[in-house]
């Protein structure tokens, strides 16, 4: 048996929806991976795209039989993931995203560390890139790489050494983990990966972040789409917490508390002037922190336009996340809502 034949069969699972702009480059990226082609199968699970995504995938599948198109009539990401996993024959499941770019050794390095570390899931770090060349898009990408914008999310901020973490982007999994703890939760149209990774850890598994693997992630192109993304991520957090019977992280509570502070704090003007002064002082501290991180990012990136864009992008990020979280508490905790129909779109 050749060395290539000894490599585990890998099943790549890729949810897609209206990715006409990116899907061709992604498929070329997959075909350019240094993992043995005969040990790779690729499932693109399309959520009924209305652009040319499916046609492009069809073209590639005719020339490359390892690429298969599956239709996800339920459209949302967890249904796509589970559909692909059920079809997969591989010993390893690699989840990928068509909206990102990967190094040629992406699959081979992750598979190597998956077995060397005895892990259930491994993943790389995100290098956030702007969607286009405009200053606003550049500022959005910087905000998504800032600790002030995204908290202590290590895969966004980067690490220097391999380390155990609570989540990674996308992920490279042993297929046996799905047999052991189940598939992705289809009630979670967002944050299904956070909940699944929390289940891995609860069941004694390990997740590792591999810094030598860098994923190029293309940020949202507009502030409105960025805010929609943050709102949706946060909206499902209370449902994740309810399912896990505990918060996934403590940092997720800071934005909703900040929104409550803004909404309710001003009423102290009718109660006591001293309390209102404290409220203003707190708002001032936030403003100073916003300006501090803006200035630091501006100096690090050497891009003057960040001074204009970052302060209000940071604020809108926090506002969108906090508002989404509070809406999720109302729907999933207070009203005990079971499902939602928020569209997962860019």
The CATH topology of the domain at 10-221, please?
A: Spore Coat Polysaccharide Biosynthesis Protein SpsA, Chain A
Largest sheet: 9 strands, mixed
Span between N and C termini? 46 Å
Q: How much beta, percentage-wise?
A: 5-15%
As a percent range, the share of helical residues equals 40-55%
* Overall pLDDT confidence: 89
Which shape, going by the Cα principal axes?
Answer: globular
Counting helices, strands and paired strands, the structural category is: alpha/beta
The ordered H/E elements are: EHEHEHEEHEHHHEEHHEHHHHH
CATH top level class name of the domain at 10-221: Alpha Beta
Low-confidence stretches: 340-346
Q: What do these coordinates show?
A:
With 346 residues, the chain is α/β, with parallel strands linked by helices. It has a domain at 10-221: Spore Coat Polysaccharide Biosynthesis Protein SpsA, Chain A. The protein contains 14 helices and nine strands. The protein has helices at residues 23-31, 53-63, 77-87, 106-116, 135-143, 147-150, 154-157, 176-181, 192-202, 223-235, 237-244, 254-265, 273-301, 306-334; strands spanning 10-16, 40-46, 67-71, 92-95, 100-101, 121-129, 163-164, 172-174, 207-218. Strands 1, 2, 3, 4, 5, 6, 7, 8 and 9 form a nine-stranded mixed β-sheet that branches. Mean pLDDT is 89; it is low at 340-346.
List the helices and strands and how they pair.
Layout: E1 10-16, H1 23-31, E2 40-46, H2 53-63, E3 67-71, H3 77-87, E4 92-95, E5 100-101, H4 106-116, E6 121-129, H5 135-143, H6 147-150, H7 154-157, E7 163-164, E8 172-174, H8 176-181, H9 192-202, E9 207-218, H10 223-235, H11 237-244, H12 254-265, H13 273-301, H14 306-334
Parallel strand pairs: 1-2, 1-4, 2-3, 6-9
Antiparallel strand pairs: 4-8, 5-9, 6-8, 7-9
Helix pairs in contact: 5-14, 9-11, 10-14, 11-14, 12-14, 13-14
């Amino acid at each position: 048996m050749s060395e290539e034949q000894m490599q585990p069969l890998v099943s790549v699972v890729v949810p897609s929806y209206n990715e006409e702009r990116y899907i061709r480059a992604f498929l070329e990226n997959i075909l350019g991976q240094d993992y043995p082609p005969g040990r790779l199968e690729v499932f693109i699970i399309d959520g009924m795209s209305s652009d040319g995504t499916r046609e492009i995938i069809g073209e590639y599948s005719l020339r490359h039989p390892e690429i298969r198109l599956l239709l996800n009539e339920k459209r949302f990401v967890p249904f796509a993931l589970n559909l692909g996993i059920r079809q997969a024959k591989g010993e390893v499941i690699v989840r990928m995203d068509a909206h990102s770019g990967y190094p040629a050794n992406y699959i081979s390095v992750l598979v190597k560390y998956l077995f060397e570390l005895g892990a259930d899931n491994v993943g790389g770090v995100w290098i956030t890139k702007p969607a286009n060349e405009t200053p606003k898009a550049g500022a959005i990408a910087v905000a998504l790489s800032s600790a002030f914008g995204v908290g202590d999310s290590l895969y966004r901020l980067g690490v220097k050494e391999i380390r155990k973490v609570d989540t990674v982007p996308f992920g490279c999994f042993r297929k046996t983990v799905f047999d052991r703890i189940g598939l992705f939760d289809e009630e979670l149209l967002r944050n299904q990966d956070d909940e699944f990774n929390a289940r891995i850890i609860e069941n004694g598994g390990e997740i590792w972040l591999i810094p030598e693997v860098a994923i190029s992630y293309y940020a949202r192109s507009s502030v409105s789409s960025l805010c929609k993304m943050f709102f949706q991520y946060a909206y499902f957090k209370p449902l994740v917490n309810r399912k896990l019977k505990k918060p996934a992280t403590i940092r997720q509570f800071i934005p909703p508390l900040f929104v409550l502070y803004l909404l309710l704090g001003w009423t102290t003007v009718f109660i006591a002037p001293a309390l209102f002064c404290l409220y203003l002082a707190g708002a001032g501290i936030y403003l100073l922190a916003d300006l501090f991180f803006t200035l630091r990012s501006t100096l690090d990136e050497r891009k003057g336009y960040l001074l204009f864009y970052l302060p209000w992008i940071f604020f809108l990020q926090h506002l969108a996340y906090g508002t989404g979280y509070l809406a999720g508490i109302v729907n999933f905790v207070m009203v005990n809502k079971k499902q939602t129909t928020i569209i997962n779109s860019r």
